[in-house]
Write a structure and sequence with these properties.
Strand content: 5-15%
Structural class: alpha+beta
Radius of gyration: 18 Å
Mean pLDDT: 91
Number of strands: 4
Strand order of the largest sheet: 2-1-3-4
Shape: globular
Oligomer: single chain
Helix content: 40-55%
Number of domains: 2
Bound molecules: FE2/S2 (inorganic) cluster
CATH topology of the largest domain: Glutaredoxin
Order of helices and strands: HHHHEHHEEEH
CATH class of the largest domain: Alpha Beta
Length: 162
């Protein structure tokens, strides 16, 4: 399909406008740095440099200071990622209840679908009583088979890709 520059520019402009609104909403609240960085990642999928610059300007900080904060946390991305990320817990409770099956099934599907989503191993999501557990973007999913986990991820990919 041919690229449609006007549409791409328009989509980007929409993201910056939405970020600008989010920044305005939370700039009066103390300690809003992380909220603003989350907003950047929510709109762009990662800490897009120009958007981080908007946050830096709003907070009176430098981009380097914001990246210094962001690198402390594992939930921020510094390069574009697929729109769906499945974080599979592989810690003990989940390991004993089938986490490796889920991980293997999702990794194979991600390869077959040319990285329509990304799979990450994580250590304990705090959902041990629902083992095996995973996060599909920000949604907690527990007590699922590998097939059910894959269906959940596929549904998220379909929803996001429209
Ligand atoms: S061990 Fe998997 S969520 Fe805690």
């Amino acid at each position: 399909m041919a690229k449609q520059p006007g549409k791409v520019e328009s989509a980007e402009a929409t993201k910056y406008a939405a970020l600008s609104r989010d920044i305005e909403e939370c700039r009066q609240e103390p300690g809003s740095t992380l909220d603003m960085l989350h907003a950047v990642q929510r709109h762009f999928g990662y800490l897009e440099p120009q958007a981080v610059g908007m946050v830096a300007e709003a907070l009176g900080l430098t981009k380097a200071q914001l990246y210094g904060v962001a690198t402390f946390y594992t939930m921020f991305f510094f390069e574009p990622k697929p729109p769906v990320i499945a974080r599979v817990c592989v810690n003990l409770s989940c390991h004993l209840r089938g986490a490796q099956d889920i991980l293997h099934t999702l990794e194979e599907a991600a390869k077959e679908q040319h990285d329509a989503f990304e799979v990450e191993e994580v250590m304990c999501l705090g959902l041990c009583e629902q083992a095996p557990a995973l996060l599909v973007n920000e949604e907690a999913v527990g007590q699922v088979s590998a097939e059910e986990a894959l269906a959940k991820v596929q549904a998220c990919v379909t929803t996001i890709s429209g």
